[in-house]
Amino acid sequence: MSSIAVLGAGKIGEALLSGLIRAGHQPDTLSFTERHPGRAKELAGRHGVDAVAVAEAAVNADVLVVAVKPQDIEPLLDDLSGSVAERPADRGLPLVVSLCAGLPTALYESRLPPGTPVVRAMPNTPMLVGEAMSVISAGSHASEDDLSLVEELLASVGRVLRVPEEQQDAVTALSGSGPAYFFYLVEAMIDAGILLGLPRAAAAELIIQSAVGAATMLRGSESHPVILREAVTSPAGTTIAGIRELEKHGVRAAMIDAIEAARDRSVELGRAHEGTGS
């Protein structure tokens, strides 16, 4: 079983560690880096996994999962570039898995020793409850075995899909940011329930269970969402009156614009690091 080091133990990093343990990875094959000592001690105690320095992880782990924020990538790459080069010859190069939004595999390849395999992955926050949608793309040195290994790792916290890397900015906008759009919609619907005189707790229960049920129907049905929506939309009924207002206020167009804006921001994050390689 490969040894795995998660570099950056925020919510996503911890969720991955927890998912790997649930999937059967032994804690002694896992490690993590965390710059805040209190947080490191807390996670080590909770999961039985060692907190290590970046240099130690870079030298000893078979897989390095980069889970820091994009703005923190430069100092991490500075640490990694020298440490990976110091690995014993018989260990070979580690597989680097980037969970950082917007950062291309070429950035890592330009800063790490030649031939380092890199896989770019975009998970989302439902990883915290084992229901992530993760999308992976191979860098120029990543093999089929590397992709299969990353699929196995991320399958411990949800579903996994492969796409060409040029589609990753769209993926980031759609599924990476997607949970926030659903939360925003649910928030608005709960507020509407309160406006209509329902207690907040009752409105929340009504909307959250409706969301869970609708998602289950979408997952279990082969029908297009339009068909499922039409099944709820009776002629001259309450639903079509509500849909008319959504269309009148341009909700569909606003959602498309929001996703395009998120895609553009993902592109900007990648471009911010162009030219930083050696």
From TrEMBL:
Pfam families, sorted: F420_oxidored (PF03807), P5CR_dimer (PF14748)
Locations listed in the record: Cytoplasm
ATP-binding as UniProt keyword: no
Domain Pyrroline-5-carboxylate reductase dimerisation: 165-269
Pathway as given in its UniProt record: Amino-acid biosynthesis; L-proline biosynthesis; L-proline from L-glutamate 5-semialdehyde: step 1/1
Top EC class, one word: oxidoreductase
Domain Pyrroline-5-carboxylate reductase catalytic N-terminal: 4-82
EC number assigned by the record: 1.5.1.2
InterPro entries recorded: 6-PGluconate_DH-like_C_sf, NAD(P)-bd_dom_sf, P5C_Rdtase_cat_N, P5CR-like_CS, P5CR_dimer, Pyrroline-COOH_reductase
Keyword terms, alphabetized: Amino-acid biosynthesis, Cytoplasm, NADP, Oxidoreductase, Proline biosynthesis
Stated family: Belongs to the pyrroline-5-carboxylate reductase family.
HAMAP family assigned: P5C_reductase (MF_01925)
General function of this protein: Catalyzes the reduction of 1-pyrroline-5-carboxylate (PCA) to L-proline.
Protein name according to UniProt: Pyrroline-5-carboxylate reductase
Native source species: Actinoalloteichus caeruleus DSM 43889
Source lineage: Bacteria, Bacillati, Actinomycetota, Actinomycetes, Pseudonocardiales
